[in-house]
C-alpha cells in the first residue's frame, strides 16, 4: 500500500513490460499515457460502469413533482401538477441516515460519469446536482440538523400555445416582450412558463440564453443555459454582453445582487437605442451632473501594493458609484465584491486622486438612488 501511494507499483509494472517487450493492458488512463511516453505498447481499456437504476427513481411516477427524503421521517412526495398538488406519504418505513447516504453516494458517483449531469453547487453541508431533468439537493449537518435529500422533477413541458393566453397578451409576447416578470408561489408553474417562453422565442429564430442556478429549465437544445461564472452572475453578465442574445431568461431571482444585475443599464442599452432611435454615448461628467437622487456613502480608505481601495457597505455591491475630491469629479466605478472600489495604483485616476486629496475627508463617494433609477428606466422603455 505504501508503494501504491507513491505510484511505485505503476512504475514496477511499466518496468516489467518494458524489460520483457510486453504489451501493457490497463484501464488506468493516466498509466496508459505514461507508459506510451516510455515507448511501451499499450492497450487502454476504458472501464465499463455497471448501469444500475438509481435508488431514488423508485419514489417517482408520472404524477410526482418532487420527493422529500429525511432521516427519521417517512418518505414524502408532492403529486399532481403545478398549481394543483398534494403532499403524500409514500410508505410507512422510517428512513435512516445510512440509507440516505447510500442514495447520495450513488447519485454523486453517477454524476461523475454521466454527460447529462452537473454538480451545480458544492458547499460544506450542501450539494446540488442536476441529473438529467432531476434537480437534487442534498443537505447534512452542519448546514441542516439532519440528513435530507430533496429531488424535484418537472412533469409538464408546455408549448406557449398550450396556455390559455389572450390575443392581447400573445401580441405583447410576440411584438414587445421586454421586461416580463413571472411571479407566484412554489409549484405554481413559473419555471414551466419561463421554459415555454424561451422555446417560443428560439423557435421564432431568436438567440436565447438563460441565467440559472441550478440549471434546470426544460429548454430546447438551441437555448444556451448559463450559471454563475466563478460564483457570480455579475461575471456571467460580462460574457452575456459579448454574445448579444435577443432574449435572456433569468430564473429564480432571489438575491439583491441578482436584481441589480437584471436591472443593469448595460443589459438594456441596446433596447434603449432601438426604441429611442438614438445613439447612447458616454461623456465626461462634472459637478453640475449631480441631482437630489444621489447619496453620499461613508467609506474607509486603504492601499494595497497594486490598488487604492475605497470600501463601502457590502449592500451596495454591484451598484455604480461616482468618486469626487472636493466636489471635483474623478471617476465612476462599479462597487465590486466586499463593497470595494479598487483603483489601480499606476493608473492616471489613482494619481489624480492622490494628488488632489490631502486626506480621506476630501474624498466623497456618491451612489444614485437605485429604485429611482429603476423607475426612470421603466419610463424610458415605455416611451
From TrEMBL:
InterPro entries for the chain: Nucleic_acid_metab_PIN/TRAM, P-loop_NTPase
The protein's name in its UniProt record: Uncharacterized protein
Endpoints of the signal sequence: none
Organism name: marine sediment metagenome
